[in-house]
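Blinded run. Sample ID left blank on purpose so nobody reads anything into the name before looking at the predicted structure. Input follows.
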Amino acid sequence: MRRRTAGIVIALAAVALAGPAAAQAATLAVSGSKSCYRAGDSLTLSGSGYTPNGPVDVTLDGHDLGPLTADASGNISSPLQVGNLRGVRTRTLVASDATNPALTGTASFLGSALVVGVKPHNGTAGRKLRIAASGFTTGKRLYAHIRRRHYRRNVFIGKLKGPCHTLKVRKPVLGAGTPKGVYKVQFDTRKRYSKKTKVWFRFSVTVT
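Blinded prediction complete.
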């Protein structure tokens, strides 16, 4: 599976947590070109108010991402690549000054896994399937492309909604007359199947 991205700066969140005095406040923000991010997407992390030339510990949802070093003015800046995600939810970044832990900044961004869930996975052709998808931020419509030897079928699944382009629908994917066998199904936002499609989710379905 592949996933990708880039662009214009939009501040997603910046929350300053005050230290003992206003002069000791630290701030943190993330910026990027999207309202929802998938694995492999890039953000920029920036902050200020930290100990000059000192280490700053960064975590994402409580998981350590490693330290950054503040510059002579107490500022930090670093590219951030989004790793594997589960579900659709807001992710929280925290940057804490290692010298003075009271200097802590928090920022957040909305993230989503690129995934399609289909139930039941196997069975008779023509039946309606429960389909749930998220993370297809490359388009507004979801399609399924079915392939097996010389069999070819492109099916419109539905319109994607919200910043993370999610969808829940009940719909048949394989026609009632589809022969028995194992079929490859690729979900993406292109009307026609293409090997050049960069963002997709694929699995196999067995028609019994």
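Unblinding after everyone has recorded impressions. The chain has two domains: 10-112, 115-207.
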